[in-house]
Amino acid sequence: MVFNLFKSKSKLGIDVGTAAIKIIELEKEGGRFGLKNYGLFELKGQPVEAGTGSAGLPGQGILKLPDQEIIWGIKEIIKKSKMSSTDAVASLPSFSTFSTIIEMPYLSEEDLAQAIPFEARKYVPIPLSEVVLDWSIIDIIGQDADAGGTSSVPAGTQVAGKGAKPTTVKVFLAAVPKDETARYQRITKGAGLNLRALELENTALARALLGNDLSTTAVINIGGRSTSILVVDKGYEQISHNYEVGGFEIAKSIARSLNVSLEKAEELKRKLGLKQTDENIVNEAMGSLLDMMVFEAKKTITNYESSRNQKISRVLLAGGLVNMPNFVEYFKQKLGRETTVANSFARIVYPPTLNPIVQELANTFSVAVGLAMREI
């Protein structure tokens, strides 16, 4: 699963998940991103099409492996895919980070920088001394003194004229445990890489899937360990909900139901999926878990719309499980909303030879793509 096209400087997006390490190498040229290389290190410890390796046991989860095993996996991908860049942006999984949107009185950025740590204590569930705190202004709300109303303008826009004056700001607040950031620094250094940035998984995902689209969108990202359901508006995550069922839990259910190994269950999941055929023996084993996944997504979307009085314009599906036969049709029918498969490769130049598998790649590498697209 390796592709090599260009030979000039580029950047790596490294997504260390629970079921796989995914790395993509992109190069920006003429305002567009071009695909250089990609590679995958699966849970069993074997990079795709490599046939070698000896990392984690099934079910262990890559994030639970010792640092040296993860370093080995990253090096294997880079070596076998002939990646040339040493600059990397890595993702932090949503279940190990905290983020929220808070509203504060309008202040200068300097005053906000001093005030936010005090405000953050109300929201961050662990002591601030144990986290790295980051924030950005995402909206400025102005009060129209003449009309007595309010107006909202994008961050960075001057509020002036007609008696309008800024009153409050919306701030996106993120907190990451210091031991997590230190671990990623150790891992990337051990792999011989220059870690240029760490980024929240959901932030990278929104960048890859939405680009400059500011419409209100629900993104359902189905990973190996969990399903992340987030609502993005004006390019920023508004709310997110993690449901602790993902592709691995579904494979375990198949294995238990059919009394087969996890490896065989994964094979059946990928081959048969939700095909409506008499010989499909995995449908029943997956049904209740998938229905709960849909229920959690529907609940999150409905709660957002009712609490914000704001309609979600579309629902996008991402993650490796989306590649499973008939999954999208099943999810769309159960959710009862217009639902489409996200395409993280929509703004990437890639060779036509990849057309037969490009959607599968886009589903699998969504977070890694967003990381490699980040401007440093």
Automatic annotation (TrEMBL):
Short name of any one Pfam family annotated for the protein: PilM_2
Domain of life: Bacteria
PANTHER family cross-referenced by the UniProt entry: CELL DIVISION PROTEIN FTSA-RELATED (PTHR32432), ETHANOLAMINE UTILIZATION PROTEIN EUTJ (PTHR32432:SF3)
Record's protein name: SHS2 domain-containing protein
Species in which this protein is naturally found: Candidatus Yanofskybacteria bacterium RIFCSPHIGHO2_01_FULL_44_22
